[in-house]
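Support request, please re-run this one:
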Amino acid sequence: MIDLPTVAEIQRKVAEMAFGRPLVTNVLRGHVVEAIVAAALEPEWEWCAEDYSSWDFQRADGLRLEVKQSAARQSWATSDKPSACSFDIAERKGRWEGAVWIEGAGRAAQIYVLAHHPVADSSADHRDAAQWRFYVIPTDRLPATRRLSLSGAKALAEGVGFSSLADAVSRVTAQLSRAAGSPT
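Re-run finished. Output below.
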């Protein structure tokens, strides 16, 4: 008779299968980039994303941040030619707050972090924080479109690497606080 595996054994197997080699997959990329953003922003920001969450991070003062991502290399790629990158920034018809659906069109977060993975050759690895560029944009500066191209993101914000991400978020947070007339 085969022993029933423990939850910890299953977690180890899944982690090794998913993350034990260079990662280039849409299925896990969102979780990976959120973990990278969490590494830059915690403990000031709480990573609160869950299945169908309306935002990914929040601060104690209620400020919310949404991470959207796109990558130049896709798992199905047959060449090193970069894929066209864009970000889903569509307004939603409402939002989830816990288990409660709240009607009302708009975007639930005040800040968007658009994460771009530009590496298209065989060295691409979505787990590598150094390979990502981040565009930190106040939500009110986003256009009223469903998708934003990479060039559109670059027109709205300067791309920063991992080591500058927390500072970029702090700058946008300070701008929002000044606009609202409150301290940061």
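Residues 162-180 form the longest helix (19 residues). Helices lie at 7-19, 26-41, 150-156, 162-180.
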